[in-house]
Write a structure and sequence with these properties.
Layout: H1 2-5, H2 12-32, H3 39-43, H4 53-65, H5 70-79, H6 82-102, H7 106-128
Helix pairs in contact: 2-7, 4-7, 5-7, 6-7
């Protein structure tokens, strides 16, 4: 199917890696944006943290403010190879998601979400470099 979409004008490397990159980026973006729609469920008494929605919103806001560190990630991506940048970004995204999944409290949830937000950007920068 890809051979019909991508003609010979694209390099072989691009043609071979379009599907893996697309699926990886889709998975990373899904992980990155999973929390906001489920704020009420995460905060709920049963199965959640039994905290207010405002507390969960504060955790999400703090993790988003960590985006101000993105210029530092840009320097990192400029100094290393694209492949290493993407690997670090995916590893960090995975660690962040795992921390969020097993989070016993809001602090661990916030740390995981912050790692996810920062290092997903590292993956995106490496992929687009």
């Amino acid at each position: 199917m890809q051979r019909r979409i991508l003609d010979d004008g694209y390099s072989l490397e691009v043609r071979e890696n379009v599907l893996p990159f697309t699926l990886t980026r889709l998975a990373a973006n899904t992980c990155y944006r999973f929390a906001p729609p489920f704020i009420a469920i995460i905060a709920a008494e049963s199965g959640g943290f039994d905290v207010s929605i405002a507390d969960i919103g504060l955790v999400i806001s703090i993790s988003e403010l960590a985006g101000f560190l993105a210029p530092l990630l840009g320097n990192f991506v400029d100094r290393v190879s694209r492949r290493l940048s993407m690997m670090v970004g995916l590893a960090g995204t995975t660690i962040g998601v795992i921390l969020m999944a097993v989070a016993p409290n809001l602090i661990v949830l916030g740390i995981g979400l912050t790692l996810l937000n920062l290092l997903k950007s590292c993956f995106d920068l490496g992929m687009g470099a």
